[in-house]
Amino acid sequence: MLPVDAATGGLPALMDRPDSAVDHALQQWWQTWPQPGPAVLGIAYSGGADSTALLLAVARLLLRQRDELPALRWPMRLVVLHVHHGLQQAADGFEHHGQAFCAALQAAHPVLQQDLRWCSRHILVNHQPGASLEASARQARYAALVEMAREQGASLVLLGQHADDQAESVLLALSRGAGVAGLAAMAARFERHGMAFARPLLEVPAAELRHWLQQQQVPWIDDPTNVDQRFTRNRFRHTLLPVLEQAMPSFRSSFARTARLAAEADQLLQELAQIDLQQAGQPPRIRALQTLSRARQSNLLRHWLKQAHGVIGSEAQLRALLDVLAACTTRGHQIRIRVGQGYVVRQGELLAWAEQA
Questions:
Q1: Is the separation of the CB atoms in 270 and 312 below 8 Å?
Q2: Residue 144 in this model has a pLDDT that exceeds 80
Q3: Is residue 89 in some structural domain?
């Protein structure tokens, strides 16, 4: 797509566009959000099609609230949050495009000069040897988004992931043999570093989103890394999703339903783990653990390790721990099982977790 020319306005009036699937999804999501909502709303914006469509729909609702929907109680100020990773040469272009795009929105709708603010942050990704660069960049990006949002007075940040992103996440979870927590894929709402985040477009297909932008001649930029098939997600996007589209056109809604049901199941498992942990104590007593079924022991131990120690063990590690627990029938029976980067050990009648020495 061609870049926006901020000097000439570059965009037709937002309210001249017909409602889209993005508009409908955003309004439906807002109706489920606890009210009163935030006074200042953050929009994570990369310049790509998904965040561009989200930003336009959010701005449209702000304008419509003034003239048509005063009862909507939509936030009165928007802050556009852009993170400059510096990981590729095109990063400067992304930032320049975003600044020009916001200026074009303000030129087309002068009221947005007061109610829409651009905010960008350059970050340095701390990539440790052997760690995933994607994961390191994601962690740094969230930290920067939270920092900018707080500085601007926002208490909620919207992300533009859509139905195709959710389908890819479900496929990635399946490919890794994940349980219900993994199959829950991307949460519609969550908290990171004390900041609320939400993904209101998870049921909007990417094709509908892009078609809407193309119809209105709204520009966006394509990240060149999105076609790099060294990344598993990109291979799914460019090779597997088209095949699924032909074989099962409704796969996006089916995968989204799987993610929702998995999220509900995971919530129930967490609630059960909390109940069992209250009975077993924290740290858990070995004898109390042994009164539970093996499945409930596993569920409790995963919950305890993650919540109390930030540890996520592999299935093989948890199986080994459960086997040792089953055989622990005497006071002298020792336990030392590797889990994550440390060990689950026995301390008298209790289990404890010790970091690797």
A1: no
A2: yes
A3: yes
Distance (Å, rounded) from C-alpha 163 to C-alpha 248?
15
Residues 160 and 30 both lie in one domain:
yes
Query: What total of structural domains would you count in the chain?
Result: 2
Instruction: List, edge to edge, every strand of the sheet that includes 350-355.
Output: 336-339, 342-347, 350-355
CA distances from 263 to 246, 275, 300 (A): 28, 19, 17
Concatenated DSSP letters for 20-69? -HHHHHHHHHHHHS-SS--SEEEEE--SSHHHHHHHHHHHHHHHHHHHT-
The reply to whether 289 and 249 lie within a common domain is: no
Distance of alpha carbon 75 from alpha carbon 222, whole angstroms:
29
Structure tokens of 303?
């919950």
Q: Are residues 304 and 195 in the same domain?
A: no
pLDDT in tens, 85-131: 876 777 888 999 999 999 999 988 888 889 999 999 998 877 666 66
Same structural domain, 249 and 292: no
Whether residues 244 and 292 share a domain: the answer is: no
Q: Which class for 327: exposed (0-12), middle (13-18), buried (19 or more C-beta within 10 A)?
A: exposed
Do 190 and 338 lie in one domain? The reply is no
Tell me: do 188 and 39 sit in the same domain.
yes
303: containing domain: 281-355
Nearest to 237 by CA among 160, 173, 172: 172
pLDDT, tens digit, for every residue of 241-262? 999 999 999 999 999 999 999 9
Q: Percent of the chain at pLDDT above 90?
A: 66
- The pLDDT of residue 11 is 64
Note the pTM of the prediction, 2 decimals: 0.87
